[in-house]
UniProtKB/TrEMBL annotation:
Protein name, per record: Probable branched-chain-amino-acid aminotransferase
PANTHER family recorded: AMINO-ACID AMINOTRANSFERASE, AMINODEOXYCHORISMATE LYASE
Annotated metabolic or biological route of this protein: Amino-acid biosynthesis; L-isoleucine biosynthesis; L-isoleucine from 2-oxobutanoate: step 4/4; Amino-acid biosynthesis; L-valine biosynthesis; L-valine from pyruvate: step 4/4; Amino-acid biosynthesis; L-leucine biosynthesis; L-leucine from 3-methyl-2-oxobutanoate: step 4/4
Pfam families listed in its UniProt record: Aminotran_4
Entries under CDD domains matching the protein: D-AAT_like (cd01558)
């Protein structure tokens, strides 16, 4: 694979960053994952807006050059011949040449990118529906910033797999926040789509924004509010959204089947519409 490091394209085996890089020592970095369909970038500008927000919330003085990043994304897609898959972009605070908790404002950010070739539209998981298990949300209380501190999410994914499940949903003060790497939704018995409102408790999903727009265009009812695991278990449908899995239906939560325990019609329809709409506007 060809990867990108600070403006250069090079073989992954030749890519180097400092051991003093603050993303390595302090998880002091943010990232974005953009999906690729037909060799084009899905909702690239949405991801760049969130990148700018994450950087500014962490007080980075650095302002990314979005045109340059778009060019670099396209170049990596071309060099690695990606028709379907993901592009990972990480912007780290960089290195001050030593380990020091206090942030040195003089560091130059480290920017790395790599591609993952992956089938996204055809998904066995989306076809059968995910098995979800729930865990307390013990993350730091700025889950809206897309930092590379993903240890808890990694532990949960691993724990979910060891319980025979596909993913984990997190619960804070009795209410679902989000999935380990996706936003969480239910469809109530009267057909209303419910997802937690935006706050510092969840990541402001780029796919979430797009899917809610699709839902409105389909004249589906949407409520942005808290919901409990119990309400989810008694819902008609449940699903999650993310750039890498689009809309992914949920079949079971903590051993309880959702509806008939198969992907529901609203989740399936939203998945189709999301893919169709975003394919048409890909860059
Ligand atoms: N929540 C969390 C915790 C995530 O890690 C992600 C994906 N990175 C999402 C939600 C979904 O965001 P997006 O739709 O922008 O991929």
């Amino acid at each position: 694979r060809t990867v990108y490091v600070n403006g250069e394209f090079l073989p992954e085996t030749e890519a180097k960053i400092s051991i003093f890089d603050r993303s390595f020592l302090f998880a002091d970095g943010v990232y974005e994952v953009t999906s690729v369909l037909d060799g084009k970038l899905i909702d690239f500008m949405g991801h760049m807006k969130r990148l700018e927000r994450s950087l500014s919330e962490l007080k980075f003085a650095f302002k990314p050059d979005i045109d340059q990043l778009l060019e670099a994304h396209r170049e990596l897609v071309k060099r690695n011949d990606i028709t379907e898959g993901l592009i990972y972009l990480q912007v780290s605070r960089g290195s001050a040449g030593d380990r020091d908790f206090a942030i040195n404002p003089e560091t130059t950010p480290t920017i790395v990118m790599f591609t993952q070739s992956k089938s996204l539209i055809k998904s066995a998981l989306a076809e059968r529906g995910q098995k979800i298990v729930t865990f307390p949300d013990i993350r730091w209380r700025r889950s809206d910033i897309k930092t590379v501190q993903l240890l808890y999410a990694s532990l949960l994914k691993t724990e979910a797999a060891s319980k025979g499940a596909d993913d984990a949903w997190m619960v804070l003060d009795g209410f679902v926040t989000e999935g380990s790497s996706n936003n969480a939704y239910i469809v109530t018995q009267d057909g209303t789509i419910v997802t937690r409102e935006l706050s510092t408790d969840i990541l402001h999903g780029i796919t979430r924004a797009s899917v809610l727009k699709c839902a409105e265009e389909l004249q589906l009812k949407v409520e942005e509010r808290h919901f409990t695991i119990e309400e989810a278990q008694n819902a008609k449908e449940a699903f999650s959204t993310s750039a890498s899995a689009f809309v992914c239906p949920v079949a079971e939560i903590d051993g309880k089947k959702i509806g008939d325990g198969v992907p529901g019609p609203i989740a399936k329809r939203l998945r189709e519409i999301y893919i169709e709409a975003n394919r048409a506007t890909a860059l």
